[in-house]
Amino acid sequence: MSLKRREFISLLGSAAAWPLAARAQQRERMRRIGVLMTGTAADPEGQARLTGFLQGLQEFGWAAGRNARIDYRWAADDADNRKYAAELVALSPDVILASTSPSVAALQQASRTVPIVFAAVSDPVGQGFVGSLARPGGSTTGFALYEYGIGTKWLELLKEIAPSVMRVAVLRDPTLLFTSGQLGAIQGAAPSLRVEVSPLGARDAEEIEHNITAFARGSNEGLIVLVSQSMQAHRDLIIKLAAQRRLPSIYSTRYFVEEGGLMSYAPDRIELYRHAVGYVDRILKGEKPADLPVQAPTKYELVVNLKTAKALGLTMPPTVLARADEVIE
Questions:
Q1: Model confidence band, residue 232 (pLDDT cutoffs 50, 70, 90)
Q2: Which of 3, 30, 36, 127 is 20 to 30 A off residue 109, Cα-Cα?
Q3: Candidates 1.20.1250.20, 3.20.20.70, 3.40.50.720, 3.40.50.2300; correct CATH number of 150-267+301-328?
C-alpha cells in the first residue's frame, strides 16, 4: 500500500508539473527570423550592422538555437534580392528584417503576408512600401533613413567647408525613386547658395568613373554622394576619384569618411538596426506591422576627416568642428 501511495503521489506531482512544462516549452518555442542584407558578407560595414541587430536580439531575450532560428542572406544586386527574398519567404519565417529599399521591394514581391521590418529605407511612402508613416497598413513597417530635406543640409555643409565651390555634382542611382526627392531638395537650395547643380548617374563602376571624370574639369567643384547599393559597392572608387580630382565631397553614410572621404552627415545606421529589433520583438509577441508606425531618425551624425581635408587644401571651419560628432585625424 505504501508503494502504491508513493506512486500515486508521484503521478500527481508529474501531472501538476505538466502545465508548467507545457508553458515553459511554449515560451521557449523556436521562432524563425529571416534577414536579407544588402552587399556581401565580406563587407565590414554590413557585418557591423548585422552585429548590431544580433546584439539587440539578445538584449530582448532572443537567442539563436534556444528560442530563435535566424536565416541570413546577402544580396549584392537586384537578381540576388529577388532570389534570396523568395528563399527566405519559402522558409515560412515569423518575421523578416529587410536592410534597404531593394530588399523590401523584393520581399514584398515574394509575399504580401510575411511580416517585414525594414531598418534603413528612404521615403517608404513614396516607394509604395507603406500606406503612410503613421498607419503603414499591410505587413511592412520599420525605420526611415532620410527625409528629403536633408539634401539642403548636405549642400549647406559643403558650401560651409568649401565656400569657393560653384558647381556641385550629385552622384545618384537614377533608377531609385527616392533619390529624385533628395536631388530636388538640393536643387531647390542651390540658387540661394549660388551653386549650379549637376546630377550624375552612378549605376555601375564604369558610369561612376566616366561621369565624375567628365564633370571635374575646373577648380570650384564639389560632390554630394547619395545612398544606393551601387555607391556602397563602389565606394573605394568614388573616394579615390574625389581625391584625384580634388573634389570636396559630402557623403550620405559615415563609412565613406572612415575609409578616406571628407565628410558625412547621416543617421547612425547601426543604431537603426538596433531599433529595428524592437519592432521584430513586438511582432514575435503578437503585434501587427500595420499597427506599428514607421519611425524617422531622431539624430544625425556629422563626421569629418581632417587628413582628407588637409590633402584637399581645406581648412575645416571651427564652427563645423565644434558641431562634429566625430573627427578623424
A1: confident
A2: 30
A3: 3.40.50.2300
